[in-house]
Design brief:
36% helix; Leucine Aminopeptidase, subunit E, domain 1; 9-stranded mixed beta sheet; alpha/beta; 6-stranded mixed beta sheet; 20 strands
Length: 502
Amino acid sequence: MKVSVTSLPLNELDVDVVAIPLTAEATQTTLGHLADGMGEGFRRALDDFDGSKDRLLMVYPDKARTKRFLLVGLGDEAKVDAEALRRCAAKVAAEAKTLKADTVAFTMPDLKLDADTMAQALVEGFMLASYRFLRYKSDGDGGFKGTERIVLHAEKQEKAGRRGGERGRDVAEAVLTARDLVNRSPNEKTATMLGKEFERMGKKHGFEVAIWDKAVIEEEKMGGLLAVNLGSTEPPAFAVLEYTPENPVNERPVILVGKGVTFDTGGLSLKPTPDSMDHMKADMSGAAAVAGTFEAIARLKLPLHVIGLIPMTDNRPGENAYVPGDVITMHSGKTVEVLNTDAEGRLILADALSYAKTFKPELVIDIATLTGAQVIALGSDVGAAMTNQTDAAWRDRLDAIERAGERSGDLVHRLPTYDFYARQLDTEVADMKNIGGREAGTITAAKFLEAFTDYPWLHLDIAGPAFLSKAKPYRPAGGTGFGVRLIVEFLREYASPKKTKK
């Protein structure tokens, strides 16, 4: 989707529809001003439109090249933030689809937010809400290919509007990439196929990709990844992504680790099918989020050296599948007693986290659809964020990721990681077991991963918001691409804290 910025008078814009977001406070003055230039249709709109939240009204002006103006209520100005603008734009996207509008313009509302933040939010909300996954639809989407261009009417703020609009487009398209990967049929995204897709993305966007085959994984002694793969007819793979700008601000890399279980049956600890296994093509949402983030940071030319590590396999109950009671030796050398083969994500992530030590990273962030307990705790709108407490900056890390969530719309909330939670992983058979008890399942999974880290680390459990059964504002049913906007925003602040803090 193309994004452009203009300062032309509104009555000279030639688009299919102009969307005008209005707060309750600004409605009367703005519509009166528009009536002076484009006819009494806007003044008459005051009888039916007061700027209340989510109110929509189409106005047909007397004196304008554009024949449709869509008024969108924002409600109380004090409550309008970037997320409100994304949701506003999502409503416009729904109307644009109904109208089959090829070109849609937005006026920039009069708010205390800076222009580039508003522009980014409007573009993101519109593009994310316009998403349709049509790969397997023989007749497409009813003949309408979708809106092709967004125009931001920025008047005196063209530069900031263009900057924010372009950033919104780049980030939104990266989210759409992640969604496409999650929604793809499992038979089209084996570990090998997913690796090839990452290679294609690297060539297109300008980051390096190396894909390890099973022989290299065996050489590296990644016992967790190899164990989970035992029941599969497809070999495992391990992706190493690297983005290296000319003058990075970090001396040592930031590492992103994504869970790449391409399909999860639960192994011999078999999942039930309804509302469980039937959604498990999404168990590589962490991998998709990392890949989407790399696309975004490369397009944004973020001045950070970033490495991505993605272990990939499916988890199936094949003839040679690993079984409860097996003891496996991990990449780190630790031994793990497997008591549930459906707790496989932590096994492959632990190998990747252990391997990350070789880079002496400044920070490692892993992201995964890891536990059903996360959904019980926080639902499908908010992910869980946890960290190790090995240095004085651990609270700052949690503060920063929560702020990034509030700015980006990918919300996360911290959970504690006190040392006593790790006692649930004690076993007399090995160094640790791969599951805790009934209580605090999201936290004990994090404590398992923490045992393989010796660096500043953030863990994001996105089991709830990564895949939806029913659509929510600008998030479709299916893969949501959750985590891309979150991590990109976190890394933007990490690279330039003075520019992004609010």
